[in-house]
Design goal:
Elements (H helix, E strand, L loop, with lengths): L21 H4 L9 H15 L1 H7 L16 E8 L2 E7 L4 H11 L11 H30 L4 H4 L8 H14 L10
Antiparallel strand pairs: 1-2
Amino acid sequence: MSTSSNENTIFDFEVRKDEIDLAKSVPKLKGASNWRMWETQMFMMLRFNNPVYVQLIRDEIKMPPPPRLPSTQIHLVAVSEPCFSKRLRATKKSKLTLLQRLLKLAPSKLSLQIWSYASTAVMAKRSGKGLEKWEKANNRAFLQFVSTLEPHISSSLYDIINVRVAYLATERSSLESVAPCHLPPV
């Protein structure tokens, strides 16, 4: 049974005012002895608080890349022959003058590629908002996750700030302490 849904994106994340305190509603993880019960209840309560939290742990919502800063220049590429290519840069103010110079070079065989400053700025702004929302969701999920761990388990996560990495480290350390009963000793 899946504990999350791929329908959400990081842009859907909003902090709910009625989130449940996981420290009070989920039994503390002691280790392998209560792993399955803890995991089930922890995911159920995290999902109730916000499905995005579970999706972060399940790696269904990835950290957005850092925003690309908008270029302060417009790039124009002029090609007149396959072996001749000239790349010129212009600020927004001198773009028209540069374009006129390029048209005089080889007007019949001119190919222009223009990267829009405006579209780059809009994409950077959206990417920045996605990163900000991801960090906020990750921080909230991480704090709720850690609140369900016994101190000896949570202390092993001192250098981890990503909720998915914390979950995987906790799973690994809790389940490593279980010796497989069905395998003969080596």
